[in-house]
Write a structure and sequence with these properties.
heterodimer, A: alpha/beta, Aconitase, Domain 2, Aconitase, domain 3, 2 domains, 4-stranded parallel beta sheet, 10 helices, 31% helix, B: alpha/beta, 4-stranded antiparallel beta sheet, 8 helices, 32% helix
Chain lengths: 305, 198
């Protein structure tokens, strides 16, 4: 293997609450493109990432591949060590001390030079969604689908993508009708995603035009959803849980979105046919997915916060 | 030897001037359940190639009798998305031995090199020349000389160099994958891991 290059992203947050990971992801990829980090390892730093739980950090690193990267990493801190300590395969006793000594060296030097550096601040970040058929085709929820005057092959791909979605350049995404909502996948099937989703739908009712599939990432998450009372909130709002698994992320089992239908999905990929032949995927965070489930259309979740 | 060694390939080519061709298009996930590498070629570009009733889509390039060959020409960022090896298996099984593009997704590229499909990265300019020549005359022959790292369009004397790491070049010309390589350096790996705690 050739060693990877390095790329450094920093996101500085001025908000007091956590930014949904899927929002960060669609935002970064809309800036960097699906090939912008090809060949690189990406180091994420800044408070947007240090504020995240370990599960959240792993999710961010997992998503690095969507911009072409070989891998993603976040320097270890107290949260990391706390997470590892006492786990089944973690070093014990003396080995733990030795390991800690080594792990504590695993951060980039202050004067480290990277091949590419990006820095964003939170005032640039709004709720994000995708409008096309690759994760790089994302925009702020209140913006219009870009009109592009591109050269041949790019233009063919862009037009084909919009045709597939049934959208046109210049259209507003807000208010577009949707048919399905999928909350789940390896990157958004965590307990905190269900907490976020339920925070929006609590005390409200699911739109009757929407079929919603809520799929925990694991049985552990499903149990937590029950124990924390989230299941009651969801059921009162007209939602039900499905069995943990990949479900509609990649249409390998029967959880397929029918041809031509629109799904607001918290999964990673919006490629043609990814969620079923002819399915039209709009990627979004659990908050955006929850707002869409209530109204049956693309809705800014901030109206419910 | 895992696949047929690759040294010099002369063939006609199939043009697919799309950008960001992702692995879900190359082989949709619903066809990934097979445990053998054979047979994926049948479903290569499944949803672009067939209608839902299984009939052929006449406007797709693989269904155009004028175009055939062992070389696939794709647009920028070819092979993005899921890291599924099956995408390359499908390309190989269909009969392609080489994909030419101006940019490859990283994992796809490495899967290619491991499975016996040579990814040849050329400039945007040369890629447009290839598309142009192949569309003008579908019988245009491309010559991929891995030994000299040279791709040429026969007849019109246009060529360009491409690069490959010496390690991957050695593997490709011998038909080896990474496992063949790792097995050879087992002793060094054991030596390294004995010095680590975990």
């Amino acid at each position: 293997m050739d060693s990877g290059k390095q790329s450094y992203f920093q996101i500085i947050i001025n908000f007091n609450f956590l930014i949904p990971i899927k929002l960060i992801y669609i935002f970064i990829i809309s800036k960097i493109s699906t090939s912008g980090a090809t060949g690189y390892f990406v180091e994420y730093s800044g408070s947007a990432f240090s504020n995240l739980s370990m599960e959240g950090r792993m999710t961010v690193c997992n998503l690095s591949i969507e911009m072409g990267a070989r891998g993603g990493m976040i320097a270890p801190d107290k949260k990391t060590f706390q997470y590892i300590k006492g786990r089944k395969f973690s070093p014990k006793k003396n080995d733990w001390d030795k390991a800690m000594k080594f792990w504590e060296t695993l951060y980039s030097d202050e004067d480290a030079k990277f091949d590419k550096e990006f820095s964003y601040s939170s005032n640039e970040i709004e709720p994000m969604i995708t409008y096309g058929t690759n994760p790089g085709m994302g925009l702020s929820i209140s913006k219009r689908i870009p009109s592009k005057n591109l050269k041949t092959t790019e233009n063919i791909s862009y037009k084909k993508s919009l045709d597939y979605m049934g959208y046109k350049e210049g259209e507003l995404m807000l208010g577009k009708k949707i048919d399905y909502v999928f909350l789940g996948s390896c990157t958004n099937g965590r307990i905190e995603d269900f907490r976020a989703f339920s925070s929006i739908v609590k005390g409200r009712k699911k739109s009757s035009r929407v079929i919603a599939w809520l799929v925990p990432g694991s049985h552990k998450v499903m149990n937590a959803i029950k124990e924390e009372g989230i299941l009651d909130i969801l059921e009162n709002s007209g939602f039900e849980l499905r069995e943990p698994g990949c479900s509609a992320c990649l249409a390998m089992n029967d959880d397929k979105i029918p041809k031509g239908k629109y799904v607001v999905s918290t999964s990673n990929r919006n490629f043609e046919g990814r969620q079923g032949p002819g399915a039209r995927t709009i990627l979004a965070s659990p908050l955006v997915a929850a707002a869409a489930a209530l109204t049956g259309e693309i809705t800014d979740p901030r109206t419910y916060l | 030897m895992t696949y047929e060694p690759f040294k010099i390939l002369k063939s006609t080519a199939v043009p697919l001037p799309m950008e960001n061709v992702d692995t879900d298009q190359i082989i949709p996930a619903r066809f990934l359940k097979a445990t053998e590498r054979m047979g994926f070629g049948e479903n290569l570009f499944r949803d672009w190639r067939y209608n839902q009733d299984g009939s052929l889509k006449n406007d797709f390039i693989l269904n155009n009798v004028n175009f055939s060959g062992k070389i696939l020409i794709g647009g920028k960022n070819f092979g993005s998305g899921s890291s599924r090896e099956h995408a390359v298996w499908a390309i190989y099984d269909y009969g392609f031995r080489c994909v030419v593009s101006s940019f490859f997704a990283d994992i796809f590229k490495n899967n290619c090199l491991n499975i016996g499909v040579l990814p040849v990265q050329v400039s945007e300019k040369f890629l447009s020349q290839i598309f142009e020549e192949v569309y003008r005359d579908p019988k245009t022959i491309l010559k991929i000389n891995l030994l000299e790292e040279l791709i040429s369009i026969e007849g019109v004397k246009k060529f360009e160099r491409f690069s490959i790491t010496p390690y991957k070049k050695n593997n490709m010309t011998n038909g080896y994958d990474d496992i063949d390589y790792l097995v050879n350096i087992k002793e060094q790996i054991e030596n390294f891991s004995s010095k680590r705690i975990f």
